[in-house]
Each structure stands twice: as structure tokens, then as C-alpha cells.
């Protein structure tokens, strides 16, 4: 993955969902360009539902040979927190996606580049980033209102259906 895409992934990063002090509020910055959302955030739940519903589109675009970074979002848990993180897809075997963590998680015991496998029912979002356009990315779209205006506008410009 190019350095530019890694930087973009770090900006989009992952969002951590947990309870505690922020459970009654909305999103809040969490450092390293990450956002924390309360468990059960309705916008993100709807975004995940839409991502799962449109997963066939991800596979369809892959079948066309569209060039870009193919990403899936999954949940990591550990240390009393849940983190939702992007995985760069490297393949698929027997219906199971294979990939590598796309950025450094906050969850203990993991780091960027670690290999992971996930089944379709573990996928929370999908995105294909061609460098000029992005397909999918429904959880990112749900977070646009919580991002700095210039960053959000640039992402809005890139999203395609």
C-alpha cells in the first residue's frame, strides 16, 4: 500500500466504541486521528447495516478488476474496549477473507500488518480506495459530520456508490 493511502487510513483510522465517560455523549477525538463513539451509536449501527447489505457490491467491483486498496472493517476486542479497524484484503479462501491490519490498533496484542481472517458476518464495513474515488465506506460517511470541515468535504467529493 502506498504511503499516501497509509496516511489516509491513519486519518480515517478506526473508531473505538466503548462505554465509560463518553457513553452519554457523541463522538470525541481519541488521538492519532481516531474517533470514539458510544456503544450503540445509531448512525454507526445504520452504516454497518448498509455496509453488510451492500457487500455484494464490494465483490462485484472486485470481479471487474477495479484497481485500488480493498478494505474491510472488523471489530477487535481486548483490554475492556472494542475497536473497529480497517483490514487491507489480501485474498479470500473458502469464503473467508484474508488480510492485514491497515493501521496500528489501540487494542493490546495487535499491530499494523498483523494477518487476520474474517468471515462475511464479521464485516462491519467495506471500502475500495482507488486514490481518486472511494466506494463503500459507510461508517466513514456516518462520521463526516464529526470531522474537520475540509477533511469531510474532500472525502464527500471522493465517495461513489
UniProtKB/TrEMBL annotation:
Instruction: List the signal peptide residues.
Output: 1-23
Q: Which domain of life is it from?
A: Bacteria
Report the residue ranges that make up the DUF2314 domain in this protein.
41-154
Keyword set, alphabetical order:
Signal
What the entry lists under InterPro entries is as follows:
DUF2314 (IPR018756)
Q: What is this protein called?
A: DUF2314 domain-containing protein
Please report the organism this UniProt entry assigns to the protein: Nitratireductor thuwali
Amino acid at each position: 500500500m502506498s504511503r499516501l493511502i497509509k496516511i489516509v487510513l491513519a486519518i480515517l483510522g478506526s473508531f473505538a466504541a466503548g462505554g465509560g465517560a463518553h457513553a452519554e455523549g457523541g463522538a470525541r477525538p481519541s488521538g492519532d486521528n481516531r474517533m470514539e463513539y458510544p456503544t450503540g451509536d445509531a448512525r454507526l449501527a445504520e452504516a454497518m447495516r448498509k455496509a453488510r447489505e451492500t457487500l455484494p457490491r464490494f465483490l462485484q467491483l472486485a470481479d471487474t478488476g477495479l484497481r485500488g486498496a480493498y478494505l474491510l472493517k472488523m471489530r477487535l476486542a481486548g483490554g475492556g474496549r472494542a475497536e473497529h479497524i480497517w483490514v487491507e484484503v489480501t485474498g479470500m479462501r473458502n469464503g473467508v477473507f484474508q488480510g492485514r491490519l491497515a493501521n496500528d490498533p489501540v487494542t493490546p496484542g495487535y499491530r499494523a500488518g498483523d494477518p487476520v481472517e474474517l468471515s462475511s458476518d464479521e464485516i462491519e464495513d467495506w471500502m475500495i480506495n482507488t486514490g481518486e474515488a472511494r466506494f463503500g465506506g459507510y461508517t466513514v460517511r456516518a462520521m463526516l459530520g464529526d470531522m474537520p470541515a475540509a477533511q469531510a468535504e474532500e472525502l464527500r467529493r471522493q465517495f461513489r456508490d
